[in-house]
Amino acid sequence: MLAEAKRDAALLALYEQERAGLDLVTDGEAQRAAYDRHFLSSLSGIDNTIPVRKLASPIEISSERADAPEINEYLSHSAIKPRIISEIKWTSSVTVDELQFAKLHTTRPVKVTVVGPLTLAQQVSDHFYNDEETLLYELARALNQEMKALQAAGADLLQVDEPHFHGSLSTARKYGMKALEELVQGISVPVTTHVCYGYALVHQEKSKSPTYPEALEILSECPITAISLEYEQPKHEPSLLRYCGQKHIVLGLLDLACKEIERPEHIARRIDDALNVVPAERLHPSSDCGMWFLPRALAFGKIRSLVEGTEIVRARL
């Protein structure tokens, strides 16, 4: 059965993370078809019978990408957008079962990811509200119900995946803060907002974006606990971290476009440099972004190196 195969994959993801020594684990999103579209199935007002095709966004495609079957498959799915035809309402959770399964099979704290409203808005075609601001706030209110369900089910940390906070910066400037305020209403567990440049699968080359600091600056004023940022592949420097204000920083230290495993000593140096700007109690080493497209051995090697590099620094501290 497909459901059983997905749970086997989740078990393997948990096992590999524990074996590598991660402090905080997830189920690897192994039971989801996509990190963003997965949440559309929890909403009413969505029609999939006559979808609309849209051009891929800059987050989904890069001009430097190399053509490959897996990339073309990813892009073809991303281009199909269901239509919003009536009022959006949250109907039931699509992630609580995933969380409960993970918690049954690990003793470590569990993080659950939820798509952000700016990013989910990119995955639909609006034929009802016809107003960007209203659409974002209605999505935020619906996703807030999902987060409350996860909080009640025992999530230790909630991560809001919101790459379009950077990819659609003009929208984030106007509505980003209010949308996140709506999203976290009534949430008391720690909330991290993850802002990346897009999957390394399609973005093989990433140069430092001149607008990335502004996205972090907006987030620094939002009612969240931490900002999770892409750091290693674009080769950002510690000066970037000042834009995060007093938030906790989840620092991406794995280049997922690189087919070589980072040396622990390199990761330790990057952490040490970041500690010149951010105190240790607010700095949390992590990967740059999702690594579902990497071979298992490479993914394990990278997260194990992340742990070993972090342990080097911890021993000195």
Kindly describe this structure.
With 317 residues, the protein is an alpha/beta fold. It has one domain (2-316): TIM Barrel (Alpha-Beta Barrel), CATH 3.20.20.210. It contains 10 helices and 9 strands. The protein has helices at residues 2-20, 69-78, 96-104, 117-120, 132-152, 164-167, 169-183, 212-219, 264-274, 296-316; strands spanning 43-53, 80-90, 111-115, 125-126, 157-161, 191-195, 226-229, 248-252, 283-286. Strands 3-5-6-7-8-9 form a 6-stranded parallel β-sheet. A 3-stranded mixed β-sheet has the order 1-2-4. Strand 6 (191-195), helix 8 (212-219) and strand 7 form a beta-alpha-beta unit. The longest helix is centred in the middle third of the chain and has 21 residues, at 132-152.
- Estimated share of beta-strand residues: 15-25%
Order of the strands making up the biggest sheet: 3-5-6-7-8-9
Count of DSSP helices?
10
Q: Give the number of DSSP strands.
A: 9
Calculate the terminal CA-CA distance, rounded to whole Å: 48 Å
Uncertain stretches: none
Oligomer: single chain
Order of helices and strands: HEHEHEHEHEHHEHEEHEH
Query: In the CATH scheme, what's the topology name?
Result: TIM Barrel
> Helix content range of the residues, please?
25-40%
Shape: globular
Sheet of most strands: 6 strands, parallel
Question: In the CATH classification, which architecture applies?
Answer: Alpha-Beta Barrel
CATH C-level category: Alpha Beta
List the domain count as a whole number. Answer: 1
Q: Please state the average pLDDT score.
A: 93
